[in-house]
Amino acid sequence: MTSDVSALRLALGGLLSLAVAMGIGRFAYTPLLPEMVAKIPLSNTAAGLLASSNFLGYLLGALAASLPAFSQQRRVLLWAFATSGITTALTGASSEIWFLLAVRFAGGVASAFVFIFASSIVLARLGEMGRPGLTAVHFAGVGTGIAASAALLAALSAVDFGWRGAWLALGIVSLAALPAVAQLVATAPSGDRRTSGPATSLDLTWPLVALIVAYGLFGFGYVITATFLVAIVRATAEMQAWEETIWILFGLAAIPSVALWSQLAMRAGTFGVMALACIVEAVGVAASVLVPSLAGAILASLFLGGTFVGITALGLVGARSLSSSDPARVTALMTGSFGAGQIVGPAFAGFVVERTGNYVVPTLAAALMLLVAAALSFGIARVRPAP
Questions:
Q1: 11 contacts: CB under 8 Å, gap ≥ 6
Q2: What pLDDT, in 10s, does the model give residues 376-387?
Q3: How far apart, in whole angstroms, are the C-alpha atoms of residue 324 and residue 179?
Q4: Are 227 and 29 in contact (CB under 8 A)?
Q5: How far apart (Å, rounded) are the C-alpha atoms in residues 139 and 259?
Q6: For the chain, how many helices (H) and strands (E)?
Q7: Residue 345, class by beta-carbon neighbours within 10 Å (0-12 exposed, 13-18 middle, 19+ buried)?
Q8: 22-72 pLDDT, tens per residue?
Q9: Distance of CA 89 to CAs 85, 145, 256, 354, Å?
């Protein structure tokens, strides 16, 4: 019983870590973006660049996390968690574009460190405790943070708190969670430091290369709508009153997604299920602009929210199964591809919206890339039906 309680506490600590660093630190930008565009004001190009800056920070942070200098995982996790809260609060401190770019970049680095080190500690410890099923609780943190922050922002909007005050409030909430994370995410003496083994060459087979490409296309395909969904909703007058609800639904759909898609993968195979999830996501992404109504917005929030974390997990699991080399190297390649897609997506969308006046072209381009990712995943499933 004591072991079960300890495992649940650890999983909840992981959930809280991801809720703050990912759900708030990375994704609170989406519901706050329309007001920032209107009040600063920001051009659509600048809005896309701010999102890309955060994703660039995340990419570089993920790659830096493999350096020997960051071997004390729990210590780095707590410092990164604090940094995520501070950069969140600072986002509302200035409307200067250079300052916002710098703060969002630093927040991206911090969120990557929290995601990687919290996941490393929590997943390893849960495996040692014989409770790997609780990893779904850990990954549910992303959706939990999105939904909780959306509810808080809706309340703040009702009293006209403004975008600056909203960022400050989110930062304070994030920092207030630091003692709980420090208490819950405790590691065994052997679990706080990485060990290194002999380097092995990376076996770049066709299935692995195809998966790396598909993962990058997925990064591009999900991030445009994930960044601009609330802005798309606000652009339609009859849906403006629903924008907070749409984003809450997005977060709620993400909470069970890893458990759902992982269970399906155990029955039907990782790559076939990943392809199916990409198709579902493509439908949701396309619906956000092809069905300009409340029904279309709800469909987009549920289909996108219910797949993006699940696909992220399936891709990393699948990559490890396709390579016998150092898992860190495979993860780095996948992260690089995914990160590149995330960086290009918002910048591309902002540039196109600036010239066309709507989100149709970049959104449909994103849906198309998701379908290509699905086709590649199906191709891998035909060659390598397991796992």
A1: 122, 126, 131, 134, 135, 137, 138
A2: 999 999 987 655
A3: 39
A4: yes
A5: 9
A6: 16, 0
A7: buried
A8: 999 999 999 999 999 999 999 999 999 999 999 999 999 988 887 777 878
A9: 6, 16, 28, 28
pLDDT over threshold 50, residue 189:
no
Beta bridge partners of 72: 193
pTM: predicted TM-score of the whole model, two decimal places: 0.91
Nearest to 209 by CA among 55, 309, 330, 308: 330
Beta bridge partners of 193: 72
Using CA atoms, how far apart are residues 146 and 149, in angstroms rounded to an integer? 5
Give the count of alpha carbons within 13 A of 306, CB side only: 19
- Which residue, among 135, 381, 362, has the nearest Cα to 276 in the 3D structure? 381
3-state secondary structure of 277: helix
Which DSSP helix (H) or strand (E) runs through 375?
helix 360-383
Phi, psi of 225 (to 5 degrees): -70, -35
Whole-angstrom distance, CA of residue 166 vs CA of residue 204? 46
- Taken in order 162, 167, 173, 176, the sign of the CA dihedral is negative
**Phi/psi of residue 337, each to 5°?**
-65, -50
Cα separation, 88 vs 20, whole angstroms: 10
User: For 245-259, what is each residue's pLDDT tens digit?
Assistant: 999 999 999 999 999
Residue 323 has pLDDT above 90, yes or no: no
Spatial distance between the Cα atoms of 209 and 218, rounded to a whole number of angstroms: 14
Return the number of other C-beta atoms located less than 10 Å from residue 238's C-beta: 9
pLDDT for the residue 119 = 87
